[in-house]
Each structure stands twice: as structure tokens, then as C-alpha cells.
Amino acid sequence: PGSISAAFQEYLQHLRLQDFPCGLGSWVRVWGGAAMGRGTGLPLLLLSLCPQNKSCRNARRTPRAGPAGLEEAVPPGEETPEALLELLRDQHSPWALPPDCSPQDRLLREVAVLAPELLRGSRVFQAVKSLQIRDKGVEEVDEGLLQFQQLEELILSANHISRVTSAHLPRTLKVLELCCNTVGDLQDLCAQPPPELQHLGLGYNRLCGPSQEKYFTVDFWPNLVSLDLSFNSLTDLLGLVSQLSTLQNLRILVLQGNPLALIPTYRGFLVDSLPKLSILDDIPVNPEERQQFHGLARQPELIRSEARVVVSIGEMKGLPDPKTFQQLKVGSESPVITYSYCVTYEF
């Protein structure tokens, strides 16, 4: 789709909010035979569907010939909202949503049955409080997102987003999840960020250097409770902690997967530096741990900008065995062949 607006239109087409059993009008079904769904009271064979206006709701239908040549009147049976909802909720129904669908999907489908007028035209944007667009090739957070004036949760994981313009984000946002994208610069996002944001997810992106760490302060996120910066390229633990310490509401922090997490005193330094932290890297911070690391925040000299990695090589294939070469005699004029190998580890 490229943009969020295009992805949302594709999402609406997938939900089919104007098709039976959703949408406007009084639905009338004409069934063939008397076959009923087992245990559900749902007819099995659907011959035709047609929305009827109130003016024709009670109109007579033309008699048709029965199996024995006798004329048989088929009165229209207007569906109740309960019957239409049953078609959406019953797992054996052809209109049932898949088990892994989101609560938002189910809510919109049910609203399309009970109050379809609320989803007509631009009104559908007012009904959406949670928007989840995962792995849809989205590259741009466009200004069309401002139509969602009640939006509180925006999940855009596993797309191709490299930058987010804060002017295109609804001010009502409380959750913004951008995990598994290509975000490398937060300047546009922090120009005018949503003031009520409580969770910011930036895991598995391309953040690196002090130029990005400066954006994690109370000046930009006064109400932030949860922050995920896992699996980026952040290296300056001291600098980052000095910024995070201004976030008075921060309770959940994820930094695993960054180079700074390799520092031996990494966890203890964070636990002591951020006394209000409840969960660090998905592990609860308990009172015993906080007591154990008490005072570590006042010893920054223990924070080394280096890490030790030990690599053990069990077997190497494709290299000549030195033992197979015959030792050259002293004074021999035969050419001497020397082999050298270099193994490089990239972090």
C-alpha cells in the first residue's frame, strides 16, 4: 500500500462492512429447501441476499412453483440483529472472522450490524480507537492518519517505515508501536510528539549514537510509562541513563540487544539509576535486587566502554593440515610456502 491511508482502505475492504450480514438496510434471505445448520439454527443453502428498504419490507413476493407443480408462497423473513450477530460469531458460519483477528475487527463488524450508520463515509474514522497494520509494506505515515480523531493505539510493526512525522499523528495517541522497521532518526517524531503517549516501541530499528539518545527525555514524553529500544545500536549507557532519569513515569524499559547491554555492570547500574523502574528487559526488578545494587549509580567509573567476548572454535574445514607438509632440509633451495589465515568477527 505504501501509506497508512492506503493500508486502511485495504483493511476496510477485507472487513467488508457493507456486505451481508453487515451494512445498511433490512436483510431478507431466500433459502432453498429446509436444511438447517446443526445445533445453530442456521440454514445451510443460501440462494440469494437482498437488502430491503422499509417501504418494500412487507411487499408480497410472487408465488413460485413447488416440487409437485403446486404454487408455494415464500414469505420474506427479515433478520433480527441477534440472528445477524450469530452469523458473525458462530465459528461454523461462512461469515465468521478468523480466530486470530483483532478485537478491533470484531468490534467494527458488530457495529456494522447493530448501528451501520455509524460507519458510513468518514464516520468510520471516529469509531476506530485501535489501528493495527502489521507487515503490509507501509513506508509512509501520511497525514490521512489525522482523520482518526479518537485513535489511542497505533501498531505499525514489521513495515518499511524510516521516519515518522509527528504532525501526522493524532494527539490522542497513547500507544505507538514501530517495532521491526528502519527508523534511524527521531528528529521528525519528536518535533511535536503526542503529549499523552504512554508506550513507545522502537525495538529492532536502526537507532545509534548520542544524537538519538537525547530524544528520550521528559521534554518530549512527559507521560511515558513503557519504552522499548531493544536491538538497536545504542552504545552510551551513561548518556542514555542521564536522559531516561528525567522520565518520572517510566516503569518498563527494554534495552536488550544493544551493545551497551554487554557492559558487565549494565543491569545493576540501570536498576540503581532508575529507582522507579519495575521491569527491565522483561524481568521484574525485585527489592532484593535493588538492595544488592544500591550505590552503583554513584560509581560511573565501573562502567567500561568495552566488553570481552570469548569465542571457541570447535572445528574448521577446508584448511590444509600443516602436518602433511614435509619439513624442508636445512639449506634446501626449494621454495617455501607460508599459509596465514585471518578470522574476523563483526558486531
From TrEMBL:
The keyword Repeat applies. The keyword rRNA-binding does not apply. PROSITE patterns: LRR. InterPro entries: Leu-rich_rpt, LRR_dom_sf. GO terms for cellular component: cytoplasm. Keywords: Leucine-rich repeat, Repeat. PANTHER family: LEUCINE-RICH REPEAT-CONTAINING PROTEIN 51, NISCHARIN RELATED. This is LRC43 protein. It comes from Pteruthius melanotis. The lineage of its organism: Eukaryota, Metazoa, Chordata, Craniata, Vertebrata. The gene is Lrrc43.
